[in-house]
């Protein structure tokens, strides 16, 4: 493999573009054991995700997990796979990118490109950045779609971006949005999404705000994720007008035997089921697009545990997905971080004249085009 990637052919008459790249976790290409296995291997081989000595983890991963888990995971994916559109996480993220492209088109004059990529699986980060390079993007804003920062999610996504840049001879300028757990537009979008659901289905006795879990040691070592989830929960509760007894912040998707941040979502719902709670609603503020963790783990598995324990009604409130308030919030955040990279004063005709003049000067100095 060459040390550096081949650069697109340069044309002095071209106008530079700004790229906006949405980054999400990932998904297998199909709900099959054959597709899930390489996806899980890539995901669970990330040292940001599993902080166990490499040699020991290699034996566990390849000797046990990848021999048993792909089949079970494939069955879970099959239960939420859309027959027409495929993976929910992928098609929701793709739609968000298209909607953001349209939103920015109404607010930005400068040339720009919006694309999306998955940290694991397809479309890969490298493929998306290659497309942006080929389209002449010399400035790129990366937006990990994780409201709450965690080393295992946000930092890992940026690792993939930086790994690509290490192989670029002509690197673009790069900015990133680290987190938006307390962004006013994001909180407003969550609030409107929940209110809309309650207007159609009524209100619960308790609202569960379930976030993806992380090992407890990550908090002890300085990862801000747990604290940012708590702040999101508090701000959302305040926006909804809920008292402390009307909601709970919990954590799902525990893996392995180590202690993870608490309280656990599944245990909390079982507890509420044993208490004969008439109705609980669960929302997952840490996911801006529905995926396996929301549609299968929460809306199916946890629901079954709650009802089996003696609970009454269980409602899962969908993620933000293509919610217009969310697209507006995403657009406003994007504009704020683009800053001087885009300008309302940009004029296409003037830019073309400048590019043509630049080409003419370059040709005089010996350039081919």
TrEMBL record:
It holds the Pfam family Ferrochelatase. It is found in: Cytoplasm. CDD domains: Ferrochelatase_C, Ferrochelatase_N. Fe(2+) binds at residues 212, 293. Keywords: Cytoplasm, Heme biosynthesis, Iron, Lyase, Metal-binding, Porphyrin biosynthesis. InterPro entries: Ferrochelatase, Ferrochelatase_AS, Ferrochelatase_C, Ferrochelatase_N. The keyword Transcription does not apply. It catalyses: Fe-coproporphyrin III + 2 H(+) = coproporphyrin III + Fe(2+); heme b + 2 H(+) = protoporphyrin IX + Fe(2+). Its EC number is 4.98.1.1. GO terms for biological process: heme biosynthetic process. GO terms for molecular function: ferrochelatase activity; metal ion binding. GO terms for cellular component: cytoplasm. Belongs to the ferrochelatase family. Catalyzes the ferrous insertion into protoporphyrin IX. This is Ferrochelatase. The gene is hemH.
């Amino acid at each position: 493999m060459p040390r550096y990637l081949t650069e697109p052919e340069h044309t002095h008459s071209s106008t530079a573009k700004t790229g906006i790249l949405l980054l999400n976790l990932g998904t297998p290409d199909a709900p099959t054991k054959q597709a899930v296995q390489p996806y899980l291997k890539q995901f669970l081989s990330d040292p940001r995700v599993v902080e166990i000595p490499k040699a020991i983890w290699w034996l566990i991963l390849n000797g046990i997990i990848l021999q048993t888990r792909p089949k079970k995971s494939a069955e879970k994916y099959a239960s939420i796979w859309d027959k027409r559109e495929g993976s929910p996480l992928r098609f929701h993220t793709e739609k968000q990118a298209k909607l953001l492209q349209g939103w920015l088109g109404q607010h930005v004059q400068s040339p720009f490109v919006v694309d999306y990529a998955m940290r694991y699986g397809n479309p890969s980060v490298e493929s998306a950045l290659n497309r942006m390079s080929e389209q002449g993007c010399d400035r790129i804003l990366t937006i990990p779609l994780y409201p709450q920062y965690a080393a295992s999610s946000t930092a890992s996504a940026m690792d993939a971006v930086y790994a690509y840049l290490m192989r670029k001879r002509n690197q673009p300028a790069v900015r990133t949005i680290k987190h938006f757990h307390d962004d006013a537009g994001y909180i407003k979008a969550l609030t409107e999404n929940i209110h809309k659901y309650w207007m159609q289905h009524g209100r619960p006795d308790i609202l569960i705000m379930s976030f993806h879990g992380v090992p407890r040691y990550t908090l002890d070592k300085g990862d801000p994720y747990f604290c940012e989830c708590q702040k999101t929960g508090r701000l959302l509760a305040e926006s909804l007008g809920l008292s402390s007894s009307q909601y709970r912040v919990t954590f799902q998707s525990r893996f392995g035997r180590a202690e993870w941040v608490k309280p656990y979502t599944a245990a909390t719902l079982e507890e509420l089921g044993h208490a004969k709670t008439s109705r609980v609603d669960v929302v997952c503020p840490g996911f801006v697009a529905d995926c396996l963790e929301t549609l299968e783990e929460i809306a199916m598995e946890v629901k079954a545990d709650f009802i089996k324990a003696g609970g009454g009604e269980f409602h899962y409130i969908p993620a933000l997905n293509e919610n217009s308030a969310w697209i507006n919030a995403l657009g406003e955040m994007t504009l704020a971080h683009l800053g001087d990279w885009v300008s309302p004063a940009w004029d296409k005709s003037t830019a073309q004249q400048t590019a043509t003049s630049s080409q003419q000067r370059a040709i005089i100095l010996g350039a081919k085009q």
